[in-house]
């Protein structure tokens, strides 16, 4: 099994931090975003306080991957979590789409696909990656 992140919602961690602060602050979201976009340390601190639940701000984004895996491996993932979308490209190639809540919840299982999901976001989303590693 091989997984490669292709694309994600831009500045996901900053958007998450902005959404978290918006619920606790009287400041306008655009103002919060403008302050956070150039402060990755503050973003990491805020994102570190995430919670995974229905309605979580982790649901309001999209990530896309290219997956090389057999049909049985894909079926296994779908049977565990129905919030992944798989589109077949070839016999063993799939476009996979999900949000970060789905990624974090699946990663807690500790199987190969969960490990690959976390590794795929390590560089682009280091604070969410760290949050996902703590939940295992």
Strand order of the largest sheet: 1-2-4-3
Give the oligomeric state.
Answer: single chain
**How large is the radius of gyration?**
16 Å
Enumerate how many helices there are, as a single number: 7
Q: What is the average per-residue confidence, as pLDDT, rounded to a whole number?
A: 91
The CATH class, by name, is Alpha Beta
CATH architecture term: 2-Layer Sandwich
Element string (H = helix, E = strand): EHHHEHEEHHH
Q: Kindly report the CATH topology.
A: Gyrase A, domain 2
Structural class: alpha+beta
**Main beta sheet strand tally, sense and closure:** 4 strands, antiparallel
The helix content, as a percent range, equals: 40-55%
What is the first-to-last residue Cα distance?
21 Å
For the record, the count of structural domains works out to 1
Q: Tell me what portion of residues adopts beta-strand conformation.
A: 15-25%
Shape: elongated
Residue stretches low in confidence (pLDDT < 50, at least 5 long) are none
Describe the structure.
31% of the residues are buried. α1 crosses α3, α3 (40-47) packs parallel to α7 (126-134) and α5 (100-107) runs parallel beside α7. The chain has one domain (2-134): Gyrase A, domain 2 (2-Layer Sandwich), CATH 3.30.1360.170. It is elongated. A hairpin with a 4-residue loop joins β3 (85-88) and β4. With 136 residues, the protein is α+β, with helices and mostly antiparallel strands. It has helices at 12-22, 29-36, 40-47, 71-80, 100-107, 112-121, 126-134, and strands spanning 2-8, 63-68, 85-88, 93-98. The chain is built from seven helices and four strands, in the order βαααβαββααα. The chain has a four-stranded antiparallel β-sheet with strand order 1-2-4-3.
């Amino acid at each position: 099994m091989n997984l490669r992140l292709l694309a994600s919602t831009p500045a996901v961690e900053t958007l998450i931090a902005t959404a978290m602060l918006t619920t606790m602050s009287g400041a306008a979201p655009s103002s919060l975003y403008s302050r956070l976009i150039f402060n990755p340390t503050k973003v990491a601190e805020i994102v570190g306080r995430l919670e995974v639940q229905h309605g979580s701000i982790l649901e309001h984004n999209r990530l896309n991957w290219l997956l090389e895996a057999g049909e049985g491996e894909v079926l296994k993932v779908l049977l565990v979590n129905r919030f992944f979308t798989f589109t077949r490209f070839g016999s063993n190639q799939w476009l996979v789409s999900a949000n970060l809540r789905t990624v974090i919840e699946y990663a807690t299982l500790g199987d190969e696909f969960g490990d690959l999901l976390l590794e795929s976001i390590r560089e682009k989303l280091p604070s969410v990656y760290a949050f996902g590693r703590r939940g295992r």
